Amino acid sequence: MKRPWLIGLIVLTASLASLDASSIQARQAPPPASPPPPQGEPVSAAEIAASIDKLGSFDLPVRTAASRTVRRASPDRAVPALVKAVRDHANGYVRYRALVLLAGFSDWSAAETMHQVLTDKNDRLRTVAYSWYGHHPDKAVLPALIDALSREQSEFVRPALLRALAAYGDDPRARDQILPLIMRGQDDFRGGLIEALGDYHATFAIPNITEVAKLDGPLQDDAVTALGKLGGEQSHTLLAEMQRSGPRDLQPSLAAALCLLGANCAANEDYLKKSLAFAATSDNAPLLRGTSHALAVLATQNNAGALTALLDSGVPSKDPVRASIALAVGLVALRNTALLLKVLDARTDLDAAGDLLRDAFDEVSSEDYELERFYVEVRHEYWAAAPNSPRRKLTDALIRKLEF
Fold first, then answer.
1. pTM for this structure?
2. Which of 157, 210, 362, 388 has its CA 20 to 30 A from that of 190?
3. What is the Cα–Cα distance from 345 to 178, expressed in whole angstroms?
4. Phi and psi (nearest 5°) for 95?
């Protein structure tokens, strides 16, 4: 079964498949990217317009280079051009990519446009807007999000809407909508919502999530993980009992959840690291997926040792082992970029680790908005670091390796 967080990360994959068909050929990377100066490069209005048109190219390297050019333009030129493209461009995919790039410039420049596309017929645009409001909650928008619940049923759109609603858990209007959806609906949607509630520390949902955790089935992993993030003595009692008597496939998630609760964390983390090492050298795909994801969960909650274990196993690995570990590293990169940079700062195999991260982003290449947030944070760290410092060199290497 696909994990619900993965469902969220592969939003739009189907619609992008045809666009990427021509880029399945051997990768021909564009020339190494150079980080932009803080105020943007002297990119002309004509160059920006031409690059925006190329955002819809069937050729992946062309699209990548076009995005990079727009990112490096000065905001006073790029932002108006992107806003115009979102509103008026004839190519729906260009409108989508322009919205993603617009979100990377600043919150204020994107806010009005995000509100306008909430009811756009282009489902890609609506998905980006829902994701944006998950990071920028606005109580004035909540009624529109609630109203959209009855319309948005697509597997590529609804997860972003549900995650956005979870960000409003302190509002009774959102809670009234959220609680019933934990207990009913498609499993993929329920799992994604449960994960989001854990991420947003929605303690009001603990009783409902606890009931899901008690039931054998595809959502048990997600409910157990969420309880670990949410905390509470009752959750600890339940999870400890499940660790003693629960199914084998659930043990990685239980170990991670109990570690998050502060219960025998050293032993639980050690179990996960040893399980990952064993799974990476044996033909045990379920254990590999389970332990990789469990370690990623710990890493997203600031556990540097968990991320180090993933990198240590993932960097020298080959497919199919590499794919599972790369996906877990990708989750950490998108959810806790600061920890990723901290851990990479201390490594001596940066080039190989960068290759693993590039593989991770290939796995989640359809989650453009979250990737754009990652790019923004890395570029911010680049300019905040002193020239020739380890952090400046690290972020420069990532910008070049990932071609943004």
1. 0.87
2. 362
3. 40
4. -60, -45
Contact 137, 167 (CB under 8 A): yes
H helices of 219-367, where? 220-230, 233-245, 251-260, 265-280, 285-300, 304-314, 321-335, 337-345, 350-363
CA dist 402 and 359 (Å) reads: 10
pLDDT digit of tens for each residue in the chain (404 aa)?
A: 434 344 343 333 333 333 333 332 333 333 334 444 444 568 899 999 999 999 999 999 999 999 999 999 999 999 999 999 999 999 999 999 999 999 999 777 799 999 999 999 999 999 999 999 999 999 999 999 999 999 999 999 999 999 999 999 999 999 999 999 999 999 999 999 999 999 999 999 999 999 999 999 999 999 999 999 998 888 999 999 999 988 899 999 999 999 999 999 999 999 999 999 999 988 899 999 999 999 999 999 999 999 999 999 999 999 999 999 999 999 999 999 999 999 999 999 999 999 999 999 988 766 789 999 999 999 999 999 999 999 999 999 999 999 98
The C-alpha atoms of residue 223 and residue 215 are separated, in whole angstroms, by: 10
